[in-house]
Design brief:
The protein is an alpha/beta fold. The protein has a single domain, classed as Spore Coat Polysaccharide Biosynthesis Protein SpsA, Chain A, CATH 3.90.550.10. Helix content is 25%, strand content 29%. The chain is built from seven helices and 14 strands. A hairpin with a 2-residue loop joins strand 2 and strand 3.
Length: 238
Amino acid sequence: MKAMIFSAGLGTRFKPWTNEHPKALALVNGKSLLQRNIEYLQQYGITEVVVNVHHFADQIIGAIDKSNGWGSSIIISDESKEVLETGGGLLKASKLLQGTQPFITLNVDILTNLDLNKLLAFHLQHKPLVTVCVTDRKTSRYLLFDETGSMCGWKNTSTNEEKISIPKPGLKLMAYSGIAVFEPSIFAFIKQQGKFSLIDTYLDLASIKTILGYEHTGDELIDVGKLESVAIAEAMFK
């Protein structure tokens, strides 16, 4: 099984560190976010990992080379010319992720103890095109699900903006964890090109393909997207 770690972002919320470094190399108890996620995947036997790079790409590539991929086989998806966001980044890496098995994606600034074996068992049992990991936590942007766990839309509760793929009453608001499992056939259905978010892809496909939510509320989970999150992450992940 393969995985992709999204590591190309500009890290604008992580300044001033990201004025001179990529967020992927920010340290939590002496280990970079990238190293922690590569080692997290290793716990589940996933050692073939695609890493996309843009912001200070040379630093990420240098860290991977110096550490010999921390024991994993790392393939670089180079976005040096233009950052493509998660959807565009996934599409650019399509040839690197092709195969017969599902693959996992995760954001480099997410740290969690989510059990990937249970996630994969869920995905293989229900066979959706995409399984998105979600928790019941407070945020401003939510994915919307019906009573079957199928994704139906998206909502920003700060602005009341909604994007509904399948209109239904009583949709449940869940926070996206930045982790997903994809069937390799996903690339045949992506219509967007260039720079776009995976959320756009989910919303585009939800009305024609099954996208299921996998709830893992109660697991350790932190978005290390801001500098002030580092201290919290260091208390959670030694």
